[in-house]
Fold this protein.
Amino acid sequence: MKYNFKGISLVDLCSWFGLTRQAYYQNKHRVLKTAIEEEILILEIRGIRKKHKCLGGRKLFGKLEEFMYEHQIKMGRDAFFDLLRSGGLLVRRRKRHHVTTNSNHWMKKYPNLIKDLEPVSPNHIWVSDITYWKTKGGHYYISFITDAYSRKIVGYQVAETMEAIESIYALKMALKGLDTRAFVLIHHSDRGSQYCSAGYVELLRKNNIQISMTENGDPLENALAERLNGIIKGEYLFDYQIDSLEEAKTILESVVGLYNEERPHSSVGNMVPSQVHEGSLDKEVRRLWKNYYKKRELSEMEK
């Protein structure tokens, strides 16, 4: 059936749907306003994604809260995710695995000192790991040292091999920025040969750092370090054409800067790691950590 609306006034159309002309124009204005706001947000998101290529929806929402407030944009999380979905801006996670730990060696291994231990300040617990970085031009190995309290990367090194000396370079970087606190520093890692090597252990002992290691092959024993690897590779390093080690070092330095200085972290109240590491927000972060551990304990009890 065809309808001919020619010659029918706006007043008649509005009356059919139980609307006044004022309501019609208000609704039209709202639709236009929403469309403009969504376009503004999409442009801002694309700007952020130029640097943070795969920053997830929750992190984006937290990062954009101040921007939305400044531009008087009211949008809830569900509507925000709908916008990401309709704009093709949702992130697809990549799952890759490459073994970088060889614990079948004769060197001394150490007990796990951080099991159920809550970090209470920056430089209380450092977690370390080595991860495999596959690029379009070759592959590399990255050693990371991360502060468990602030989630800041305090030391890193990229190399073409997994030799112990490369992990020692990352440790030396972390030690350069070490701000001594009242708490004894614990260094936690897997039982890989790099961390059990004489050079690495000697450097830890020389700086009065306690040595902690995983006690079996369960990744959960070094979950924070594993998580950091996933973030850096999954959000930043997944799509590079690297033609030399020097180029890899330059890119990694830039990426670590973005992670430490700009990427919000949900476990520390959506603040960025460098903010938390400075110590000005210790009281608030301590409260968040307590809540985090309570939730984890409840989750383990429910298993």
